[in-house]
Amino acid sequence: MTACGYTPAEIDDMPFCDVLGLFAYWQDHPPVHEILKCVYRIERNLDATERRSSEDPSGIGELISRFPRGFVREV
């Protein structure tokens, strides 16, 4: 999945003028989450999606397990 929500195959099937339209949009409105990921050198943990089960599709159980005492330590 790309930053715009399209799969690479969907982008391959787009007319070239639509792809150019996406580039023009990104020039004025770049995907902030991608910029911040680069600035802060954050990599997505791909294992998190694998840990989700059919019993916990939202992944909230994994999030709760990160904070066993129920609070986040202040920095």
Q: Which features characterize this protein?
A:
75 residues, mainly alpha, 5 helices
Note the overall shape. elongated
β-sheet strand percentage: under 5%
Number of helices: 5
Write down the secondary-structure element order: HHHHH
Report helical residue fraction.
40-55%
Which structural category fits the helices and strands? mainly alpha
Which whole number gives the mean pLDDT? 76
What is the strand tally? 0
| Span of the ends, CA to CA | 33 Å
Q: What does the largest sheet look like?
A: none
Total number of domains: 1
Name the poorly predicted regions.
none
User: What does the radius of gyration come to?
Assistant: 18 Å
Protein architecture, described:
The chain has 75 residues and is an all-alpha fold. Helix content is 52%, strand content 0%. The chain is elongated. The protein has one domain. The model has no long low-confidence stretch (mean pLDDT 76). It has helices at 8-13, 16-28, 32-39, 47-51, 60-66. The two termini are 33 Å apart. The relative contact order is 0.07. It is built from five helices and no strands.
Briefly characterize the structure.
This protein is mostly helical. The protein has 5 helices and no strands.
Helices, strands, pairings?
Elements: H1 8-13, H2 16-28, H3 32-39, H4 47-51, H5 60-66
